[in-house]
From TrEMBL:
It is a multi-pass membrane protein. One of its GO terms (molecular function) is potassium:proton antiporter activity. Its main location: membrane. It comes from the Bacteria. It comes from Streptomyces hundungensis. PANTHER family: SODIUM-POTASSIUM/PROTON ANTIPORTER CHAA, SODIUM-POTASSIUM_PROTON ANTIPORTER CHAA. Residues 36-188, 222-363 form the Sodium/calcium exchanger membrane region domain. Keywords: Membrane, Transmembrane, Transmembrane helix. InterPro entries: Alkaline_pH_Ca-Antiporter, NaCa_Exmemb. The chain crosses the membrane at residues 12-29, 35-54, 66-87, 102-123, 135-155, 167-185, 219-237, 249-268, 289-312, 318-339, 346-365. GO terms for cellular component: plasma membrane. This is Sodium-potassium/proton antiporter ChaA. The keyword Transmembrane applies. It is found in: Membrane.
Amino acid sequence: MIRLARLPLDRWSAVMPPLAVVLLALTWGRSLPGVLVALVACFLAGAVLAAVHHAEVVAHRVGEPFGSLVLAVAVTIIEVALIVTLMSDGGDKSASLARDTVFAAVMITCNGIVGVCLLVGAVRRRLAVFNAEGTVTAFATVTTLAGLSLALPTFTTSKPGPEFSPAQLIFAAIASVFLYGLFVATQTVRHRDYFLPVTQQGEVMRDDAHANPPSARTAWTSVILLGVALVAVVGLAKGVSPTIERGVAAAGLPASVVGVVIALLVLLPETIAAVRAARRDRVQTSLNLALGSAMASIGLTIPAVALATIWLSGPLVLGLGASHMVLLALTVAVGILTVVPGRATLMQGGVHLSLFAAYIVLAVSP
């Protein structure tokens, strides 16, 4: 790892995914001692950073808002794969894993990533400026998906507990796919300008003058290495997940913390890319990444879990508890007030981060 760190970024990011896959093949299905867990964690972090690099190369080639979409979907594939593989292990704890991970993703993206990026943008230019039309559309979609998939199951009566009946689960899955597909069409075809970065004067930035786009060959190479990195991340995360679960249990923390850890892990690429965009005065790109990840997390995870219930045994708990419902409601209210004006100050960033901090505190000490 020390020698790899000395390599140029392009070479390092090209070497890391294959090495991580080799390590995955050597450790798959085995009980790992502490030293190997530490080694796997290092390669896991390296694969995540390599995935960020290759996703950004592809994003630069295809341009905005397609670039944000590529990274959001790639990261969500990791999340879906992790959730399904961990749920396949069975047990009572897996019943609420999908809910805990998806809700964690919503809180991390809509409060954590959004708050940090607004702070970064506001510090640089006093105001973080973005396109209100596109951001409102994205946030409205996230709110609807979260309400249908996470809030509504708490109040249904067809099954005892915060669960959907089979018919309700099918509806939620179809509605999630439909809304996500409709948003992608809106973002990339009909109203693409709504999701492009804007200047401080509100003018759309159509060209990225920071660097020439990579060649088609370089972009396709990054697509392949991105896929390899994602496979490595999923597999290695699955390998260290028993250690995470044991650590959470040994610390006396609620089982839902596992979902928080998974969401933090898989959203690390999005966080890094979003902060980098905010530092380049492209706050709209940051919001595309954050809200796109929240949307993809719900819109792709719920259908995948619904399909997985065909062969997975046990209940599927999706409805949120009372404290999380309050946090979701506050996030929706604050988010609306943030995105409607099309500009934000340090205060808005701080408010979102305070909500994220409250979520972390309640996850550790409910």
